[in-house]
Amino acid sequence: MTNSKQCKNIIILGGGTAGWMTANLMVQQWQKKIANNQLSITLVESADIGVIGVGEGSTPQLKSFFDKIGVTEQEWMPQCNATYKNGILFKNWSGKDDFDSYFHPFTSIIDAHTAPAFVYNSQFRRKGYDVDSCPDRFFLSATLAKQQKSPIGNKNFPFDVNYGYHFDAVLLGKFLSTFAVTKGIKHVIGTVNEAELAPNGDLHALVLNDGKKLAGDLFIDCSGFASVLLQKTLKVPFISFKENLFNDRAVTIATPHEDTAKLNSQTISTAMKYGWAWDIPLTNRTGNGYVYSSDFCTAQQAEDELREKLKLTDSSIKANHLKMKVGRVEKHWHRNCLAVGLSQGFIEPLEATALHFVQEAIDGFIEAYENGGFTHQYQAAFNDKMNARFDGIRDYIVSHYRLSNRKDTQYWRLNGANPNISNSLKIIVQCWLNGDDLNKALVQPGMVSFYPPVSWHVILAGYGVFPQLNNDLEKNELANKYDLPHIDQFIERCSLNFQDHYQFLNSRPQ
Ligand SMILES: Cc1cc2nc3c(=O)[nH]c(=O)nc-3n(C[C@H](O)[C@H](O)[C@H](O)COP(=O)(O)OP(=O)(O)OC[C@H]3O[C@@H](n4cnc5c(N)ncnc54)[C@H](O)[C@@H]3O)c2cc1C
Fold first, then answer.
1. The pairing of beta strand 498-500 with beta strand 149-153
2. I need a labelling partner for 408 at 20 to 30 A (CA). Which of 71, 142, 157, 162 fits?
3. pLDDT tens by residue, 255-275
4. CB within 6 Å of ligand 1 — which residues?
């Protein structure tokens, strides 16, 4: 294995969001070395092979990325037509009467006053008591989303609320590339035809189509689904999640806003016949996409269904069709190559976790690489952690399909009966059905879960995974311990400290 103490040249292959996020985090971390000419970082991207160009929603993690590289919201958001995201509204997923929609919030410190009531009530609802356990009522961000408010509180409101963003992925890539170059990243345009190996099997240099070579000590593969270095050159196997997650295609259509003086502050995810559709508000347009399985419908059927949903009669508004490779690599860091972004794997975009994962991968790598004195000492531990994160996210996404009671198409019937679910997911669902403590189950040895207990409560309660109400149960004062009108008032009063999303974005000084 290479001793990378002498790492002087880092080459990043790929200029999609993953490549430019990597470049920015690395230049930030190692700026002194770069300034002293001890380290050089070069990003090479093809002018002929485009970026994926979708990926318009984030988790709250993206805020910490910009904080880390020292960029304010006023600097990047207007340039990327970005808006705020309080969470995701799931519509028509459960297939059960009375459970048509629920909101998956980004939780914050303020929810410490109300979330325990939700968890408590859902515990009693799981025993058949008639208590309200719809998550929406218990989280401030659900109310902010419903009221189309921004998640930035007035100055006198003493709590911060967590939030994500919506943005134009292409513009975000451009913004990040300009910023990284001003910080000292070298930018090369060229298509990589092949990679040369050193005698020990490590990567040695990338050969461009004009014959130029880019030699390096460490290579970051951000070449998207092609995974030119890690999968194609170093032959690291890809583990498909097709058995767990059927969706492998997407079709996207951008539409103008219906009401130009209103702006949602949530992603809307609507279950469709063969998958689901997103509705993402940007400042200048709405991003729409339908993620589906090509085993169950054709690209044209999917496009037609999306157009019908959007009530779109204007055929001049074009659709964009994409293929997705869903799964992960066996090892994310192998020899002197780290894969980041789509080249390391992808779980369909239902909870918009891909960029979150990109950041975790780079942060985790930088930490492991530095702790190991710039050697590969912590490579195996890093890979184990990445795999567990991937598998944990996969399970949460799988649960959206497996828990559904929809029976309208073969797609939903097979998803609902899919036997290919992980042990961890089986334990979580069983624990819920038994009425046991999910918090405890999630920290048992061997459990893999990316999502916190509250998210599991939200999806299970939001889908109505409950027994029939038991009217024979005696009135139990304990079941009604929480004063729900009081919670409603508390959340309502908190929400008065937040402004209308559209007005907030338009009145904010640039
Ligand atoms: C339908 C869909 C919806 C998504 N929605 C979300 C979302 O809401 N939220 C989210 O976080 N993520 C989402 N994602 C994922 C997100 O788009 C990607 O994770 C993100 O854009 C990073 O992509 P990337 O940089 O890895 O790859 P790409 O954008 O594909 O970039 C690959 C780069 O590699 C270069 N390249 C490739 N081969 C070569 C070569 N031989 N020589 C030189 N250069 C080369 C290309 O030129 C390009 O610059 C979504 C993805 C899909 C498919």
1. antiparallel
2. 142
3. 999 887 899 999 999 999 999
4. 13-19, 44-46, 49, 51-52, 54-58, 169, 191-192, 222-224, 226, 228, 250, 289, 291, 322, 324, 341-343, 349, 352, 354-355
